[in-house]
């Protein structure tokens, strides 16, 4: 293999053309999820508007930019403008401008959320998705045109999903050491926040212990999600089952991350109802006989 072959193959893999329709569907799902996240899953963030400023410990990006300290004006303003921009982006209009605004405002929303304590890692892929989705320009849900830009954006989301899993295990081993594997990590989790299903596993500590090894094994081999064909589909199924079981036993959803798993699916095959095609996609429905 020549010195130039490997970079070309890598570029060909990273920029492999994908249908613009898949990009359009991902935009609809991700921008729609912004409303769910802001209004439901992170509905506690507005409370920081009244949190004493001395408790604010800005994360690195918040210090670097620098962003204003959250307060009774800043937090509601970011929330309202973010939702307005998400609505524009969801409509399919101004895809680059509105999409870029959503990314920057959602990033600020996350910095407000996590500058007072624990930082969740389930939003890495979502932030990457918001950053790259605007780069593809206009895209319709019926547009089967293969695009390098769409392929690059979707590949970035996929890689972010994989890195979230892989780096999560490195963090487990860095901060928890081998005790994360050989200790009672999941048993403690079940005792602290278990569900009726999870509580039934208290009597099977050996099973929970084995599950800890299974989780680490899955996360370390998560790059197989990027494999084509059967292996990729199998690992996508593993990921779905992993999150379903985690929710059923510990009430941990990783919802922003699981939304990004949809980047691995052929969303372009989804039907677009003609009555809603214009309002959801920004496209004009075809009349009978048009091609």
Strand content: under 5%
Residues in helices, as a percent range: 55-70%
Any low-confidence stretches, pLDDT <50, length ≥5? Answer: 275-291
| Discrete helix count | 14
Instruction: Count the E strands.
Output: 2
Give the radius of gyration: 21 Å
Mean pLDDT: 85
Explain what you see.
With 291 residues, the chain is an all-alpha fold. The chain has one domain (16-281). The chain is built from 14 helices and 2 strands, in the order H-E-H-H-H-H-H-E-H-H-H-H-H-H-H-H. It has helices spanning 5-14, 20-41, 60-64, 74-90, 95-114, 124-132, 148-176, 179-182, 185-193, 196-199, 205-220, 230-250, 255-260, 277-281; strands at 18-19, 146-147. A two-stranded antiparallel sheet has the order 1-2. The model is unreliable at 275-291 (pLDDT under 50).
Q: Which tags fit this structure?
A:
291 residues; mainly alpha; two-stranded antiparallel ribbon; 14 helices; 2 strands; disordered C terminus
Task: State the gist of this model.
This protein is mainly alpha-helical and 291 residues long. The protein has helices spanning 5-14, 20-41, 60-64, 74-90, 95-114, 124-132, 148-176, 179-182, 185-193, 196-199, 205-220, 230-250, 255-260, 277-281; strands at 18-19, 146-147.
